[in-house]
């Protein structure tokens, strides 16, 4: 980035003036207002801690396992994860810039490229994906809580499942309790989330090292995983698995690549958010994925089978104190990740729909209720399904949104926005009755080629193999087409005006 872009930031007076001018507008509320520089407390270490906190979670731990079970050896799996996160880091940093420069959240930034009303489309698409993840993470956290309490009440494990469900009443109660804890912390605001990151990051680094030490000494090494060869017959078989796996890894953080302004609007400056993210995201993801691979490899020797689920692994520890400590750490890890990745963003997105009626708190509650309604225990029942179908599928949606946003902000506007007009119905982002047709058409154009492949993969429709293969590149296809269509249509519109 150029020196001008690195130092770009509004002033306190500009932020205050926008808030005064737009206070009565239907598209304004205090939660969506630009954050003045004086109120921004997140430095590079906070941004780094954000990613350490996000990466230290159960889905990341088991991500490498799904690649290994698919046929990769350990270094192929780790390499795929590293490459995927380096790729997604690029749109992450590009979208983050506007948050720090203008102090605005993701749904407000969407207004520039999709229109005042049209911004609700990308905001809600991203929000509903996050609701799915919110429910999944709450289920994982509730499962860890259930395991802790079952140490004191072993009879819970013998309770019958509830009618029509795959869990008993005690496990269901733990799920709701963990859900309520997430909503309660979100209700207290963004600063509560930041403090939780700063507690979790060093704690999880220590516990990851402790888990590695335990596995190494119990197994006299990290077991057979490091010497296990790739199970692909030839290069073609490897490529057929590698590209959807890479897309899935990009898709894991494709949500944050869009709504990262929800966090970087609190960053002190551009250098802080860039430095913290550039080191935090790839390093944390590789480190925690590697922990998952090494520890799981050691469990083959220790227990005679591969134990991929960290909740199940910790529950097998011989000492109750070790079980309690390990499961408690998993609960904290899941809590912090869920609040950052799946609560802050959708809460702002729902608030953007009706700013005068829906606050950040109300948006967080809506997120939580939808998270229950999607029945996360079914989504997580098949880890391969939710990683390779769930992640790849929604990456098609989010890639297209990212293509439009980045094209609009950098290619067309050169990172210059009319801040006041982002909150006013009579501003330049009103377009046609609040919708920018070019943005919506470009998004649909990016998603369309991925739809036949999705229907084929899920078994809803029999399609040619070409569409299935194309679907494996969903995020890349969607991003590239949406970017190109938006750039082309915008240039045509400029020539006609």
Structure description:
With 497 residues, this protein is mostly helical. It has one domain (3-376): Orthogonal Bundle (Hydantoin permease). It is built from 23 helices and no strands. It has helices at 3-6, 12-22, 44-55, 58-69, 74-102, 106-114, 120-152, 169-188, 190-219, 235-252, 254-259, 261-264, 270-303, 310-315, 320-342, 344-353, 360-373, 376-379, 383-412, 437-447, 451-457, 465-471, 474-496. Helix 9 (190-219) runs parallel beside helix 13, helix 19 (383-412) packs antiparallel against helix 20 and helix 21 (451-457) crosses helix 22 (465-471). It is globular, with a radius of gyration of 23 Å. The mean pLDDT is 87.
Kindly state the number of beta strands.
Answer: 0
Second-tier CATH architecture: Orthogonal Bundle
Helix/strand order, N-terminal first: HHHHHHHHHHHHHHHHHHHHHHH
Mean pLDDT: 87
The radius of gyration computed from the alpha-carbon positions, rounded to a whole number of angstroms, is 23 Å
The percent of residues in helical segments reads: over 70%
**CATH third-level topology:** Hydantoin permease
Strand content: under 5%
CATH class: Mainly Alpha
Task: Assign the structural class, choosing from mainly alpha, mainly beta, alpha/beta, alpha+beta, or little secondary structure.
Answer: mainly alpha
How many strands, which pairing sense, and closed or not: the largest β-sheet? none
User: Kindly, what is the distance between the CA atoms of the first and last residues, rounded to a whole number of angstroms?
Assistant: 31 Å
- Number of contiguous helices: 23
């Amino acid at each position: 980035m150029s020196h001008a872009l690195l130092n770009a930031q509004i002033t306190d007076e500009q932020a205050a003036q926008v808030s005064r001018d737009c206070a009565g507008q239907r598209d304004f509320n205090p939660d969506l207002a630009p954050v003045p520089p004086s109120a921004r407390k997140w430095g590079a270490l906070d941004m780094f801690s954000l990613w350490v906190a996000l990466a230290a979670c159960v889905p990341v731990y088991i991500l490498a396992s799904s690649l290994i079970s698919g046929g990769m050896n350990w270094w192929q799996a780790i390499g795929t994860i590293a490459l995927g996160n380096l790729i997604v880091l690029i749109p992450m940093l590009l979208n983050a810039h506007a948050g720090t420069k203008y102090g605005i959240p993701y749904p407000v930034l969407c207004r520039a490229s999709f229109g005042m009303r049209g911004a609700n489309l990308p905001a809600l698409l991203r929000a509903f994906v996050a609701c799915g993840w919110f429910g999944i993470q709450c289920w994982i956290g509730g499962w860890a809580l259930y395991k802790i309490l079952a140490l004191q009440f072993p009879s819970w494990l013998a309770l019958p499942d509830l009618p029509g469900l795959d869990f008993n009443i005690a496990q269901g109660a733990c799920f709701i309790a963990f859900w309520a804890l997430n909503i309660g912390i979100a209700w207290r605001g963004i600063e509560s989330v930041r403090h939780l990151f700063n507690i979790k990051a060093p704690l999880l680094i220590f516990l990851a090292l402790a888990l590695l030490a335990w596995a190494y000494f119990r197994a006299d090494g990290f077991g057979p995983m490091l010497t296990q060869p790739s199970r692909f017959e030839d290069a073609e078989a490897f490529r057929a698995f590698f590209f959807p796996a890479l897309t899935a890894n990009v898709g894991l953080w494709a949500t944050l690549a869009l709504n990262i302004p929800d966090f970087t609007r609190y960053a002190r400056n551009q250098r802080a958010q860039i430095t913290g993210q550039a080191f935090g995201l790839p390093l944390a993801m590789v480190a925690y994925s590697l922990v998952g691979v090494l520890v799981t490899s050691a469990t083959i020797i220790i227990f005679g089978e591969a134990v991929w689920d960290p909740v199940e692994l910790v529950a097998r520890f011989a000492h109750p104190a070790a079980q309690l400590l390990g499961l408690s750490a998993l609960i904290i890890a899941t809590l912090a990740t869920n609040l950052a990745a799946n609560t802050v963003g959708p809460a702002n997105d729902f608030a953007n729909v009706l700013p005068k009626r829906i606050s950040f708190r109300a948006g967080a509650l809506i997120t939580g209720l939808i998270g229950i309604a999607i029945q996360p225990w079914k989504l997580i029942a098949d880890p391969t399904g939710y990683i390779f179908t769930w992640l790849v599928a929604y990456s098609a949606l989010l890639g297209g949104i990212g293509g439009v946003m980045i094209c609009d902000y950098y290619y067309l506007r050169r990172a210059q926005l009319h801040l006041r007009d982002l909150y006013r119905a009579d501003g330049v982002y009103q377009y046609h009755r609040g919708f920018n047709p070019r943005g919506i058409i470009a998004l649909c154009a990016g998603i369309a080629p991925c739809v036949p492949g999705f229907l084929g993969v899920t078994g809803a429709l029999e399609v040619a193999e070409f569409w299935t293969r194309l679907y494996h590149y969903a995020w890349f296809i969607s991003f590239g087409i949406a970017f190109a269509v938006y750039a082309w249509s915008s240039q045509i519109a400029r020539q006609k005006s």
